[in-house]
């Protein structure tokens, strides 16, 4: 499962705060976001400045019939801007931590009336996702899985919507068949007719299920295999005697005491434990 995180240079939205309609601008760090204000020429003989979240001017221009004499601090005029026509499109030289927050185009000589406010957000990588289930899955049943991640975009209050992508064995899931995804965000996945994923088809990496050796011969290791998703754990026993928790049985130099039936047990345990077994016979012949 993955959280969708689409990197965009800038994202515009609008909201209202204290009666002032403010634009929302979301941008990646280390980019050059552009703060745009199209000046209304019906307002004449005025100075317009752009102040940052610390209330420090980063752009100022005088408008008397036409606008001219622009000054910039840690900013420049964007390619879409034109001071003479009132297109104050101001590009930050860089965007880093501490520069996110509220920017305001204002007329300082008019009791600092705000002409336009822009909340600039720094787009952050979502926190690592967690998955929870509404109940313990059982074979043939239904379970609802919920994925949750927290936005690190700063400052808070951006109202960005998190969307999610679910995968199974590396393949993206879509609604249909046994799978139902919550529309729009895919935050929840409903899985119908839960199926057990092993251990099935236990086998050995050797030919046959038995081996005859003479006393003193070296045993060729035998690996226990099974179809499991996720992977199974294995253990070997001889009767009631524990031999190893490895998938590989390696007796070494065999003696008469090593003869017998060895059992490989594969275990798959997530919510419910499933096991499967297969026997391997070792026959030790006495040397004459």
From TrEMBL:
PROSITE patterns (alphabetical): IG_LIKE
Keywords: Disulfide bond, Glycoprotein, Immunoglobulin domain, Signal
Database matches in Gene3D superfamilies: Immunoglobulins
Signal peptide: 1-21
Residues covered by the Ig-like domain: 126-281
Keyword Disulfide bond on entry: yes
Protein's recorded name: Ig-like domain-containing protein
